[in-house]
Amino acid sequence: MGHMRGKPVEAGFGSPLEAAIAERDRGTLGMVRTALTRGDVVLAYQPVLRAGSGGVAFYEGLIRILDETGRVIPAREFIGAVEDQELGRRIDCVALRLGLQALHAHPGLRLSVNMSARSVGYPEWMQILRRTIRHRPETVRRLILEITETSAMMMPELVTVFMAEMRDKGILFALDDFGAGQTSFRHLRHFSFDIVKIDGAFTRNVDADADNQVLYEALVGLARHFDMVTVAEAVETEAEARWLSAAGVGCLQGFHFGAPIFDPPWAKRQTEGQAAGRRRGPAGGGRAQGSGQGPA
């Protein structure tokens, strides 16, 4: 046992709080590891709509895991613990594989999936992508890879080279959570993102918040300068949607237009027999039963 100011604390941790956080992360890692082993990792799909027309521009496939009770766990509850672990790379592999399977099964679909810049150097992830490029090149032309600003800035040179190679294959790239970090303006010109997804913190109450309006107008202007399509994240009200459309935002995404679901409309366009066989949702098994129509 280590000691600090006369009080015993667990060796290797500076405080009881750090020990508690480490214990929580161990539990999260175990939950993710179990879900991967059982195949209880799924994508939930949320539409991204064109501002003005309201038509669907593309869907985002959001990673979810199912715990041992069947509870749906969104990425925000586990991704921080696994991001710098091999488990994070394995999660990225499953997300990419499921996304590519959906694209292959639905030729009219355009889909984005999330990835970490670290996965560019992970052999299995790259093999999945390159194998699809080789055997189903038309599929990857409808793929959008989303990289968070924080992840991209960790290894900008690697990301830049990877993006240049994959854009030649028809893959589009989206910068996720733009504006959340502190290096956006300084580094944006070094990348060639096709889409910029503006962080939801700027969207909240944007119709009434003068500060958010100024920030949004600056971010939209910057994206337009670099010829990137803008997506407003976390749109929750009609008033926000109207203001964003008037401000020139290209696309809108958020609960106002639909929660992430396991059984999106394009997945229902199949024969009645096929639909009956999928009532439990994708890859979720019986524990996901009933979740297909609701938020994920």
From TrEMBL:
Q: Which SMART domains match?
A: EAL
Annotated stretches, region: Disordered: 265-296
Composition bias of kind Gly residues appears in 282-296
Q: Which GO terms describe its molecular function?
A: cyclic-guanylate-specific phosphodiesterase activity
All copies of the EAL domain together span: 25-274
This chain's protein is named Diguanylate phosphodiesterase
Organism annotation = Roseicyclus marinus
Question: What high-level taxonomic lineage is stated for the organism?
Answer: Bacteria, Pseudomonadati, Pseudomonadota, Alphaproteobacteria, Rhodobacterales
